[in-house]
Amino acid sequence: MTQRTVSTPDSELRAIGAQLTDAAPAGDAVRIPLRAPALQPEMVQLLSTEGDRIAHPNYCSTLDGATIAAAYRDMVFARRFDQEGTTLQRQGQLGLWAPLLGQEAAQIGAGYALAAGDHVFPTYREHGLALVRQVDPLGIMRLFRGIDQGTWDTVEHGFGLYSIVIGAQTPHAVGYAMGVSRDGTDDAVLCCLGDGAASEGGVSEAFNFAAVFDAPVVFFLQNNQWAISAPNTRQTAVPLHQRADGFGFPGVRVDGNDLLAVQAVTSAALDHARTGGGPVLVEAFTYRMGAHTTSDDPTRYRLAEEEASWRRRDPLERVRRYLQRHTDTPAEFFDQAQADADAFAARVRRDCLALPEPRVTDFYQHVYGELPDDLAVERAQVDEYLASFADAS
What we know:
By secondary structure, this protein is an alpha/beta fold. It contains 14 helices and seven strands. It has one domain (about 65-355): Rossmann fold (3-Layer(aba) Sandwich), CATH 3.40.50.970. The chain is about 45% helix and about 10% strand. Helix 2 (about 65-90) packs across helix 3 (about 105-110).
């Protein structure tokens, strides 16, 4: 992956300016021609929807059959964990849940591209990546249950705490990557974001800093088509990976439902970053098959035909077909993977239900080092109010 530089000679700029000036009558405003529609960009794909390998001139997955089977198993676990999170929220055990349904190949593929020393800055939907990095799933449940703000060891797992504020993790990731560069290691940073986050100003600032300082960071943008109810057409006039051009670093679009393509492209991008090439923007073109969060109803803004079309591109089924057709993976492997995932989800449910109920006043102790007097009084009032319900019973 090479650095791309786009420049326009001064003479050409002067010629363009002269044409615009000559075309406008004296005293009239200069009229800028409307831009032409963006061309459909190439999308890297290594596995067809039917599970057949596709050759690509620039990318090739290094995963063998056994590793692909292991990745498939991780995808099954991620989907089952996600289903359990949604169910627990619907039963009042979690305050909120952000589903990943449909994005399993993007997350597991990216996870399999990481080296041990790399560090991930997630959003709030990276459950699959968290499992690949061996984060305790109960830690994620504690977060969405409101007990704490994240308790896993971010250094041990190379996986940061979930970021709820949209795009806030991107400047943090770039700063961390700049530090990694100054430490002289060959580690890289994977910064996760979504298509909606790409509209945030902080993300543009992160892109700029990363480019200027050649930070070893890969911006892994999972474009799931919808920023809550805002479609891509209301967010960007060009394919999102092309935004990297304006900041002076490469961007590439990959089929986000293709496990092998995501792994190959992300691995190449991380290698580019870790060897001094600077940042890369990887746009994993995928689809959120479920709701944005459990507080959202996608049937209010999405067509059933659209959802059905993307269900036919199910990332798990694509890998399953490949394993069945082109490897010696036994038939019982798939049933066993699902049974193991079900048992895993049952343990998560049991452990989640055993967690304590979060207390309303707990959040007072997580903002200030020393609680101001007025907030101490307020907390005492809230405690007294809540205690009155116990007395009434």
